Every structure is written in structure tokens, then in C-alpha cells.
Amino acid sequence: MGATVEQALEQLKSTGVRMTPQRHAILSFLMHSMTHPTADEIYKSLSPSFPSMSVATIYNNLRLFVEAGLVRELTYGDDSSRFDADLSEHYHAICRTCGTIVDFDYPPLTDVEEAASRETGFKVEGHRMEIYGQCASCASPQRAN
């Protein structure tokens, strides 16, 4: 994982964003989550601790974090965005059955960026790769019953 919660909070404060307990909780939840949660999942996890926090508060803060470059929004054409605080170059394997998203690394893909840059003259800023299928639990024979 790249930045710590404290580093991310310092980065936000330096841009004049006031740090509230809710913002701290949302950012901390995202930075410690491996599940690429949706805004609703974040809300369900945090609402017991923050009963006055609304789903709108979650969405507004997620937008703020995305704009500040602390969080990446993942949109895969399904019903809702998922959010990832791991900004390192990595890729996602996505289960079409249950929606689980698993991170994986594959360094040779940086060669693809370099080839694209050489062949097109583009200044490449990044790429996205997704693998689709069924996760191990959805694909297991016991699940088919």
C-alpha cells in the first residue's frame, strides 16, 4: 500500500480540506479494505459508529478523495462504483457471479505501455486491465447445487 492514512490526511489538510471524524473513518476504512467497497458497503460498515452519517456524506467524501488523488474510482459498467485506495499500478480480476474484485500484479504490462508509446508517439499516462471470470468459491463444484 502506498500512503498511510496519516500521510493522506496531511495531503488533504495541505489543500485546505478540514479533517472531520467521518472523513478520517471513511479514508481509514478504504485504506485498510481489500474488497474495493461500494459507497453503500462503506456506509453499512461505518453507520454503527457514525449514526448521523448519511450515504450522501459518504458519496461527497469519496468524490473529494478521488479529486484529491487519494482514491481511485473503479467503474465496471455495473450498478455502482467501487473505490480503491491502493494507487500502485495493479490489475483486477473480477468475479461475474458475486462481484468480488481481487488485485494482482503483472509487471510485463509496463512493456505494453512502452511499446504503445514508441509506436504511437503518445505520452502514455496509464492503462487499465481487467480479467473476468468466476472466483474460486463461485466456480467450486459444491456451489453448483
Question: What do you see in this structure?
Answer:
With 145 residues, the chain is α+β, with helices and mostly antiparallel strands. Helix content is 41%, strand content 13%. The protein has 2 domains: 71 residues, Winged helix-like DNA-binding domain superfamily/Winged helix DNA-binding domain (Arc Repressor Mutant, subunit A), CATH 1.10.10; 49 residues, Dna Ligase, domain 1. A hairpin with a 7-residue loop joins strand 1 and strand 2.
Q: Widest sheet: strand order?
A: 4-3-5
SSE run: HHHHEEEEHEH
Assembly state: single chain
For the secondary structure, the number of strands is: 5
Q: Alpha-carbon distance between the termini?
A: 38 Å
CATH fold node name of the largest domain: Arc Repressor Mutant, subunit A
* Number of separate helices: 6
Number of structurally distinct domains: 2
Q: Which percent bin holds the helix content? A: 40-55%
InterPro entries: FUR, Fur_C, WH-like_DNA-bd_sf, WH_DNA-bd_sf
GO biological process, one term: negative regulation of DNA-templated transcription
Keywords: Cytoplasm, DNA-binding, Iron, Manganese, Metal-binding, Repressor, Transcription, Transcription regulation, Zinc
Family: Belongs to the Fur family.
Describe the structure concisely for a colleague.
By secondary structure, the protein is α+β, with helices and mostly antiparallel strands. It is found in: Cytoplasm.
Element layout with pairings:
Layout: H1 5-14, H2 21-32, H3 39-46, H4 55-67, E1 72-74, E2 82-84, E3 91-95, E4 101-104, H5 109-120, E5 130-133, H6 136-139
Parallel strand pairs: 3-5
Antiparallel strand pairs: 1-2, 3-4
Helix pairs in contact: 2-4, 3-4
